Amino acid sequence: MSDALHxxxxxxxxxxxxxxxxxxxxVDGVLTDGRLYYGNNGEELKAFDIQDxxxxxxxxKAGIQVAIITGRSSALVDRRAKELGIAPVVQGREDKLxxxxxxxxxxxxxxxxxxxxxxxxxxxxVICRVGLGITPANGRPQIVARAALQTTAxxxxxxxxxxxxxxxxxxxxxxxxxxxxx
Length: 182
Description:
40% of the residues lie in helices and 14% in strands. It has helices spanning 3-8, 11-18, 50-61, 75-84, 96-106, 124-129, 141-144, 159-170, 178-181, and strands spanning 22-25, 37-38, 44-45, 65-69, 89-90, 114-117, 132-135, 149-150. α3 (50-61) runs parallel beside α8. By secondary structure, the chain is an alpha/beta fold. The protein has one domain (3-174): HAD superfamily/HAD-like (Rossmann fold, 3-Layer(aba) Sandwich).
């Protein structure tokens, strides 16, 4: 573990990050910048950060499961999740705590082994219950006040990658980058 990790994060955050086996993600405001784009023909557009995608792939390679719980339903989310191999994907669920409980029933996971990234009020109950509750730089003030960690990057602009890097380094998985560095 590097000195830089200890300079950037508290001992409590690093200890929590070491335990994480599941990263659960909100979509709008976390994987995207939270804005909705609609075309003239009714199509919906979302922009996803490519670095977040690589971070997700690296986590999966390191054995950390990634799942989505989002309040809206979108075919674009299904498409991006499929591209990245993210499963399960739970859409259209404003009550995210109930969705988490259902996920725990179908995919056994202890709360202290879960990190969750969310940016707004529907995310709050989950953020307050998991082992590492996180909000991106653009998280609402009520969420920032209760999350264990706020990223320096905004949602849709590398927040997920920032957390992927934290988890990988805290868990001694930094060697996963070597394939790209040689």
